[in-house]
């Protein structure tokens, strides 16, 4: 039983956590791609930026969460989401729009977004330093230990408050996005533009509005993902470096341009990572007795070492590009 | 009749050959003007220039007396200058009805603040647009496929949808790019009747590119013949048919011997 608890703590819970983060990031990447047709490399840095906005606000109002019993950072997150959304629109107007207006090839925009990545990383380090920080300033992180009934399980299932919030938020965000894209006029205009930009223009759809809204959604989701991840672990300026590859892998696995694919891709990549670094020897231990004498189970049995976790999304990416280049959901159009 | 579209001395080249070469023409308000010419004459390029999908290298386009060269395609759309595409364009992942509902400009639902703060306003307008779209889809005879994804419609149905799109807003000029190509004869009769009705009852001006000479003869007066990027001749269909230069342009020299 303890082994199963260990599995739940290390695979199910942490898998869901990283999957939700990747999914929210990948949705942003995929939305930007489907509207503007370029891979936005600065996306992970928008996550970091958003999380730092939250940190800044939390430093200003550290006590605000005590009244409600939720982390202050979470209460202040919506404000930071708006700030990042507006920053994203500002970045677009300043750096990407002039390029678009000159009808450059998508690759130029991609390289431009790499420039924005470096710039954002530099700015964040300049203002906030290079160390890692905790998002909890005046409070402590709530950790729930669920004791299982029965005598076999002596270890509890451990879930932290931010993990629960993250999961609830991710589900809510996905439902809201689905409603927005299928029901609202603006969402339909987004789908129309990703489908056929020429026709969208001659149908009188204001493409500038659609682009601005795309950046707002991407920026807001990135902030939420960055903040909730930093609440669960710590906030580091190089957060984006470890997120970029899994997020792009998730977007491509799901089929670029397909928001539901991005969610599926996020879960595939997230769980592949956690399963790959999981120590399977723990699960096999109860069967030790059944093995013939002299057969010893190794104490550590994982597909890759934890330090090579980042190779897993890379492997999935290569595999999907070889066997199913359009992604699981055949992307391209919202 | 005053002219609503005035193209003057337009040039356009794509790298090598000059596609539109000192082209000047005018379209009278309330007319159904035909634009014919051999393949490669520059008809579609000229449409792209008038609708704002392409910028001319030089020359001017006037719409209702106003110089519109600097306006974007969606701004021209808002002034009532609409177009259809030679190869029917549609939003493949939206239904036929949603395709039509996409069209009317300045819907409050396209404004982010209205979407969240004035849902009532958005709803009311959405209802109106929907009612109009249902009328139009009935008019173009696609009512039975209105909830079908537009990508699944047949080529001819997509063409009808293109025409329907122009009826969703108060158009003044509609540029029809080979609306009849790929449409079967029965649908074609409907199409022609609808175009005439829109012209007569709603005062639409049409500029029509067409290879089907029967349709041109039935629908268009006057007809403009474009060859090698400039206007060769303009007149009624009978004048055009009996013009030896036109016959030569279409069939080559020597084809004029009765």
Automatic annotation (TrEMBL), chain A:
Keywords annotated in UniProt: Amino-acid transport, Cell inner membrane, Cell membrane, Membrane, Transmembrane, Transmembrane helix, Transport
A Pfam family it matches: BPD_transp_2
GO molecular function: L-isoleucine transmembrane transporter activity; L-leucine transmembrane transporter activity; L-phenylalanine transmembrane transporter activity; L-valine transmembrane transporter activity
TM regions (residue ranges): 12-35, 47-68, 74-95, 107-128, 164-181, 202-227, 239-256, 263-282, 302-323
GO terms of biological process kind: D-alanine transmembrane transport; L-alanine transport; L-isoleucine import across plasma membrane
Any one of the GO CC terms: plasma membrane
Compartments it resides in: Cell inner membrane
UniProt xrefs under InterPro entries: ABC_transp_permease (IPR001851), BCAA_transport_permease (IPR052157)
Entry membrane topology: Multi-pass membrane protein
Taxonomic superkingdom: Bacteria
Entry similarity comment: Belongs to the binding-protein-dependent transport system permease family. LivHM subfamily.
Name of the protein this chain belongs to: Amino acid/amide ABC transporter membrane protein 1, HAAT family
From TrEMBL, chain B:
UniProt xrefs under Gene3D superfamilies: P-loop containing nucleotide triphosphate hydrolases
Record-level GO cellular component terms: plasma membrane
SMART domains per record: AAA
InterPro entries, sorted: AAA+_ATPase, ABC_AA/LPS_Transport, ABC_transporter-like_ATP-bd, ABC_transporter-like_CS, BCA_ABC_TP_C, P-loop_NTPase
Keywords: ATP-binding, Nucleotide-binding, Transport
Protein name (Swiss-Prot/TrEMBL): Amino acid/amide ABC transporter ATP-binding protein 1, HAAT family
GO molecular-function terms, A-Z: ATP binding; ATP hydrolysis activity
Domain of life: Bacteria
Domain ABC transporter residues, every copy: 5-253
PROSITE patterns: ABC_TRANSPORTER_1, ABC_TRANSPORTER_2
Pfam families: ABC_tran, BCA_ABC_TP_C
Transmembrane region(s): none
């Amino acid at each position: 039983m303890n082994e199963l608890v260990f599995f739940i703590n290390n695979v199910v819970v942490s898998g869901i956590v990283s999957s939700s983060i990747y999914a929210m990031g990948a949705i942003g990447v995929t939305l930007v791609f489907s509207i503007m047709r370029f891979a936005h490399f600065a996306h992970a840095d928008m996550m970091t930026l958003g999380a730092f906005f939250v940190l800044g606000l939390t430093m200003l109002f550290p006590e605000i969460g005590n009244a409600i019993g939720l982390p202050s950072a979470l209460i202040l997150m919506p404000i930071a989401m708006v700030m990042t959304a507006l920053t994203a629109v500002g970045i677009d107007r300043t750096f990407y729009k002039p390029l678009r207006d000159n009808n450059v090839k998508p690759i130029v925009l991609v390289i431009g977004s790499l420039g924005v990545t470096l710039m954002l990383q530099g700015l964040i380090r300049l203002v906030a330093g290079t160390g890692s920080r905790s998002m909890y300033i005046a409070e402590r992180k709530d950790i729930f230990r669920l004791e299982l009934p029965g005598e076999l399980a002596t270890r509890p299932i451990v879930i932290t408050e931010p993990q629960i919030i993250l999961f609830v938020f991710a589900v809510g965000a996905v439902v809201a996005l689905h409603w927005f894209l299928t029901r609202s006029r603006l969402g339909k205009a987004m789908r129309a533009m990703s489908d056929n930009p020429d026709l969208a223009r001659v149908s009188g759809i204001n493409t500038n509005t659609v682009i601005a809204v795309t950046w707002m959604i991407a920026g807001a989701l990135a902030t939420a993902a960055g903040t909730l991840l930093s609440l669960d672990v710590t906030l580091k300026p190089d957060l984006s470096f470890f997120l970029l590859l899994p997020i792009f892998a998730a977007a491509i696995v799901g089929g670029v341009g397909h928001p539901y694919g991005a969610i599926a891709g996020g879960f595939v990549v997230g769980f592949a990572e956690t399963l790959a670094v999981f120590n399977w020897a723990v699960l096999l231990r109860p069967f030790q007795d059944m093995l013939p004498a002299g057969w010893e189970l190794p104490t550590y049995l994982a597909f890759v070492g934890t330090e090579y976790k980042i190779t897993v999304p890379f492997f999935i990416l290569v595999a999907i590009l070889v066997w199913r280049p359009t992604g699981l959901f055949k992307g391209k159009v919202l | 009749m005053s002219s609503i579209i005035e193209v003057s001395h337009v040039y356009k080249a794509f790298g090598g050959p000059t596609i539109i070469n000192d082209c000047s023409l005018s379209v009278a308000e309330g007319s159904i003007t035909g634009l014919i010419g051999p393949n490669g004459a520059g008809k579609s390029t000229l449409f792209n220039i008038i609708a704002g999908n392409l910028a001319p290298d030089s020359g001017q386009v006037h719409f209702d007396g106003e110089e519109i060269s600097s306006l974007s395609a969606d701004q021209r759309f808002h002034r009532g200058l609409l177009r259809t595409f030679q190869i029917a364009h549609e939003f493949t992942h939206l239904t036929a009805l949603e395709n039509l509902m996409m069209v009317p400009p300045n819907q409050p639902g396209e404004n982010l603040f209205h979407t969240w703060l004035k849902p009532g306003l958005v709803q009311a307008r959405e209802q109106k647009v929907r009612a109009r779209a249902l009328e139009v889809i009935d008019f173009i005879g696609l009512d039975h496929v209105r909830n079908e994804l537009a990508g699944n419609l047949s080529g001819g149905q997509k063409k009808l949808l293109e025409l329907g799109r122009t009826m969703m807003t108060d158009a003044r000029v509609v540029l029809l790019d080979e609306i009849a190509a790929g449409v079967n004869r029965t649908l074609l009769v409907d199409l022609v009747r609808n175009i005439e009705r829109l012209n007569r009852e709603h005062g639409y001006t049409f500029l029509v590119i067409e290879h089907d000479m029967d349709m041109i003869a039935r629908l268009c007066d006057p007809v403009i013949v474009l060859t090698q990027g400039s206007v060769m001749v303009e007149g009624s269909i009978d004048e055009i048919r009996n013009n030896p230069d036109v016959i030569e342009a279409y069939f080559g020299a020597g084809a004029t011997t009765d």
